[in-house]
Design goal:
Elements: H1 3-20, E1 23-28, E2 33-34, H2 36-41, E3 72-74, E4 80-85, E5 91-99, E6 103-112, E7 121-124, E8 128-129, H3 131-134, E9 141-151, E10 154-165, E11 170-176, E12 184-186, H4 200-211, H5 226-242, E13 246-247, E14 259-263, H6 267-273, E15 275-276, H7 278-291, E16 296-301, E17 304-310, E18 319-322, H8 343-370, H9 372-376, E19 387-390, H10 391-397
Parallel strand pairs: 2-10, 3-7, 13-15
Antiparallel strand pairs: 1-4, 4-7, 5-6, 5-9, 6-8, 9-10, 11-12, 11-14, 16-17, 16-19, 17-18
Helix pairs in contact: 4-5, 5-8
């Protein structure tokens, strides 16, 4: 055998050996659970702002990966990726991920310029989600997720995994770094996605609140009078009470290995079923108050949620708590029956409703005071079960209201 042929065969064997060592492993930020509510509501969120973590998008001013940190490529805001091991530097790589019925084949194609010493790189294709399909998921279901990769023109053995597509009502609270880890990423602000100030039902509730006669209009903070703001909130409270909404403690979801989540009813579900748990009632009230320009908050404390709102639009505005689980404490007539009541009956109903409202404010304020230090703590060691979620801040971040099919008229 000629020396030239021997060298060619040797090069072929070495090349084949190196290629055989390249492996593909699926990667998911939320393990084998996928959360439509998070995917939909954060569709336009750029987590890093002007900073770029993806090697194929970095400039000289962007941070370099830390030692032993796997370099990433593609959409740094993605939920799904492929981990490649044994990739040669400057390899031409193509990665495709697809999910039957929910994500079209989504591909990243480019050159891997930076790897770890083991040839590791993580690739996030820009996901082409079917958002209409995601918005229809009301019960969790299994889905097939397929991961494919090509390195220097050679196909790597693909991997198809069965994941769980969670219900749209499942809201992530926080995501642990590993199943037994005490480190986590806070996602409590995703609850703001269930606040929907644009829902058509909100205008109907405001119309009913005006018909009660408690206030003559809803102008938010325009009067500059905290008492007027308080009466606007009471008018909304009274209108929801007249809808007959009762407290219903349904909040648990199927456990996940790394994600802590809670079931949240959408605004139209709470109204249709006349039931709401602590989060549902707070989301419902926040939706209506946000519509009229009153700054609202969802306040999370261990095992509970309540509403808070500002009495003015000043930077040092007084914040008021409101225990929304007390909405069902009164049996009062629907708004359309008010004209048929005697003056005494009307007065008695308004007094009863207002008494409950003031009690709800007292309890809410007491909890704001009790948890003040923890609510103000924005350190890395903050308690994940104690959070205050500003609806305006969540909107500024890019958290969009989730619009269900029933929202569309």
């Amino acid at each position: 055998m000629s020396s030239r042929l021997s060298l060619l065969l040797f090069a072929f064997v070495i090349s084949s050996s190196l290629q055989a060592e390249i492996t593909l492993d699926p990667w998911s930020y939320t393990d084998q659970d996928l959360y439509p509510s998070a995917i939909v509501s954060t569709a336009t969120v750029d987590w890093n702002g002007d900073d770029q973590d993806a090697e194929d998008k970095k400039s000289a001013d962007d941070p370099k990966p830390k030692k032993k940190e796997i370099p990433i490529y593609g959409d740094e805001n993605g939920w799904l990726a492929v981990d490649l091991t044994g990739v040669p530097k400057n390899a031409d790589v193509q990665v495709t991920i697809s999910i039957d019925g929910f994500m079209k084949p989504s591909t990243w194609k480019g050159k891997i310029t930076k790897i770890t010493k083991d040839g590791e790189a993580r690739v996030f294709p820009k996901a082409i989600w079917d958002y209409d399909a995601l918005l229809k998921v009301r019960q969790q279901r299994p889905v097939n997720v397929t991961f494919k990769a090509t390195v220097n023109g050679t196909d790597i053995p693909e991997d198809t995994e069965t994941y769980v597509m969670r219900a749209l009502n499942d809201c992530m609270f926080y995501v642990k770094y590993a199943e037994d880890s005490d480190q986590f990423d806070d996602f409590s602000w995703l609850f703001a996605a269930y606040v929907n100030e644009n829902h058509p039902e909100v205008d109907i509730i405001l119309k009913e609140a005006l018909e009660s006669g408690i206030v003559s209009d809803f102008d938010g903070y325009q009067d500059g009078d905290p008492k007027a703001v308080m009466m606007q909130v009471f008018a909304v409270w009274n209108a929801l009470q007249r809808r007959g909404i009762k407290y219903s403690d349904i909040s648990h979801t199927t456990p996940s290995k790394t994600v802590v989540s809670q079931t949240v009813r959408f605004l139209d579900d709470s109204i249709k079923d006349t039931q709401a748990n602590c989060v549902d009632g707070s989301v419902l009230m926040a939706s209506v108050l946000s519509k009229i320009g009153i700054t609202s908050y969802l306040v999370m404390i261990p095992g509970h949620c309540f509403l808070a709102f500002d009495l003015s639009d000043d930077d040092d505005a007084k914040r008021v708590g409101l225990e929304t689980t007390m909405l069902g404490n009164n049996e009062i007539k629907p708004v359309e029956e008010i004209p048929h009541l005697t003056e005494k009956a009307k007065l008695d109903e308004f007094k009863a409703s207002y008494k409950t409202f003031t009690s709800a404010v007292s309890i809410g304020n007491a909890n704001l005071k009790k948890y003040k230090d923890k609510l103000d703590d924005d350190s890395d060691d903050a308690d994940p079960d104690v959070q205050i979620i500003s609806i305006p801040d969540a909107r500024d971040l890019g958290i969009m209201p989730i619009s269900t099919q029933r929202d569309i008229k």
